[in-house]
Give the backbone structure.
Amino acid sequence: MQELEEHIANLARVVDDLSDVVARQETEIGQLKRRVARLLQREAERESDSSGAAAFGDERPPHY
Protein backbone atom coordinates (compact mmCIF):
# COMPACT_ATOMS: atom_id res chain seq x y z
CA MET A 1 0.00 0.00 0.00
CA GLN A 2 2.84 2.39 0.85
CA GLU A 3 4.40 1.77 -2.56
CA LEU A 4 1.15 2.63 -4.34
CA GLU A 5 0.78 5.86 -2.36
CA GLU A 6 4.34 6.86 -3.26
CA HIS A 7 3.71 6.06 -6.90
CA ILE A 8 0.50 8.11 -6.94
CA ALA A 9 2.26 11.04 -5.24
CA ASN A 10 5.04 10.86 -7.82
CA LEU A 11 2.53 10.79 -10.68
CA ALA A 12 0.66 13.76 -9.21
CA ARG A 13 3.94 15.72 -9.07
CA VAL A 14 4.73 14.83 -12.68
CA VAL A 15 1.25 15.91 -13.80
CA ASP A 16 1.67 19.24 -11.99
CA ASP A 17 5.10 19.77 -13.59
CA LEU A 18 3.72 18.99 -17.04
CA SER A 19 0.80 21.33 -16.45
CA ASP A 20 3.25 24.14 -15.64
CA VAL A 21 5.20 23.40 -18.82
CA VAL A 22 2.05 23.47 -20.94
CA ALA A 23 0.97 26.77 -19.36
CA ARG A 24 4.37 28.34 -20.10
CA GLN A 25 4.27 27.06 -23.66
CA GLU A 26 0.79 28.47 -24.16
CA THR A 27 2.02 31.89 -23.04
CA GLU A 28 5.07 31.69 -25.29
CA ILE A 29 3.00 30.57 -28.30
CA GLY A 30 0.65 33.52 -27.77
CA GLN A 31 3.60 35.92 -27.69
CA LEU A 32 5.09 34.38 -30.81
CA LYS A 33 1.76 34.59 -32.66
CA ARG A 34 1.52 38.30 -31.81
CA ARG A 35 5.10 38.86 -32.99
CA VAL A 36 4.46 37.09 -36.28
CA ALA A 37 1.28 39.10 -36.81
CA ARG A 38 3.19 42.35 -36.20
CA LEU A 39 5.94 41.27 -38.59
CA LEU A 40 3.42 40.38 -41.28
CA GLN A 41 1.67 43.70 -40.82
CA ARG A 42 4.98 45.57 -40.93
CA GLU A 43 5.98 43.73 -44.11
CA ALA A 44 2.61 44.46 -45.73
CA GLU A 45 2.99 48.14 -44.88
CA ARG A 46 6.54 48.15 -46.26
CA GLU A 47 5.37 46.57 -49.50
CA SER A 48 2.49 49.02 -49.86
CA ASP A 49 4.83 51.98 -49.19
CA SER A 50 7.36 50.88 -51.79
CA SER A 51 7.42 52.54 -55.18
CA GLY A 52 5.82 49.55 -56.83
CA ALA A 53 9.16 47.93 -57.59
CA ALA A 54 9.09 44.70 -55.69
CA ALA A 55 12.39 42.97 -55.06
CA PHE A 56 12.01 39.21 -55.24
CA GLY A 57 14.75 36.99 -53.89
CA ASP A 58 14.60 34.54 -56.78
CA GLU A 59 14.74 37.13 -59.59
CA ARG A 60 17.98 38.23 -61.22
CA PRO A 61 18.94 41.87 -60.82
CA PRO A 62 18.33 44.04 -63.90
CA HIS A 63 22.03 44.25 -64.84
CA TYR A 64 22.18 40.56 -65.84
